[in-house]
Design goal:
It is a multi-pass membrane protein. This protein has four helices and no strands. The protein is mainly alpha-helical.
């Protein structure tokens, strides 16, 4: 029972820390930081999968599944943003050289 409270405490602490860190980043820096932090999203996804693998109760499995789902969305979103950012630096082909 105590292990569940510790896991919940760590989850709440991670959520609060993540919110505080991201909220302090200026809007203009979000896109460049997304490309540099795709590896962090991958680590979060692996951590969520490990947590899901160690889940024992239905509630733990549900929270783990939601964690994996959100982390996977983060990874995909990071790569989409990076691709769009890199497309801005390609030659447009309109009246180009």
């Amino acid at each position: 029972m105590i292990e569940g409270f510790v896991a919940l405490y760590i989850f709440m602490l991670a959520a609060f820390t993540g919110y505080e860190v991201i909220s302090k980043v200026p809007v203009i820096l979000h896109t460049p930081l997304m490309s540099g932090s795709n590896f962090i999203h991958g680590i979060v996804l692996v951590g969520a999968m490990v947590a899901l693998g160690h889940a024992h109760t239905g509630l733990e499995q549900l929270v783990g599944f939601v964690g994996v789902l959100l982390a996977a969305g983060n990874v995909v979103g990071g790569f989409i943003v990076t691709e769009r950012m890199l497309d801005m630096f390609k030659a447009s082909g309109k009246g180009g050289k």
